[in-house]
Amino acid sequence: MRLPQIRDTFLDYFTAREHRLVPSSSLIPSEPTNAGMNQFQPYYLGTAEPEYNRATSVQKCVRTSDIENVGRTTRHATFFEISTSRTSPRSGRSC
């Protein structure tokens, strides 16, 4: 299976289960970011009401914290993607 098919299969699974597809945050953010959940921070802090109870995304990531390991191991790459799904505790449902 190639990367685009893995990504699409992941997102199709969750969107079929009523998750809102949320685009990846930019790799060049307007504010510092270190995790894909940062775009959801106002909802976790209770400072904003989410427009939806369930979301899925594939977040683009650039390795910075252990960049010296890139190329030395089979699991360290400079760029990777993290597939996520999030469910608001208020929804009363799991994934």
Give the secondary structure arrangement, pairings included:
Blueprint lengths: L2 H13 L4 E2 L19 H5 L8 E9 L16 E9 L8
Keywords: Aminoacyl-tRNA synthetase, ATP-binding, Ligase, Nucleotide-binding, Protein biosynthesis, RNA-binding, tRNA-binding
EC number: 6.1.1.7
GO molecular function, one term: ATP binding
Provide tags for this entry.
95 residues; alpha+beta; 3-stranded mixed sheet; 19% helix
Using only CA atoms, what is the Rg? 15 Å
The percent of residues in helical segments reads 10-25%
How would a crystallographer describe the biggest sheet? 3 strands, mixed
The chain-level mean pLDDT equals: 81
Folded structure, characterized:
- The two termini are 24 Å apart.
- The chain has one domain (3-91).
- The chain is built from two helices and three strands.
- It has a three-stranded mixed β-sheet, with helices on one face.
- It has 95 residues and is an alpha+beta fold.
- The mean pLDDT is 81.
- GO terms for molecular function: alanine-tRNA ligase activity; aminoacyl-tRNA deacylase activity; ATP binding; tRNA binding.
- Residues 1-82 form the Alanyl-transfer RNA synthetases family profile domain.
- Belongs to the class-II aminoacyl-tRNA synthetase family.
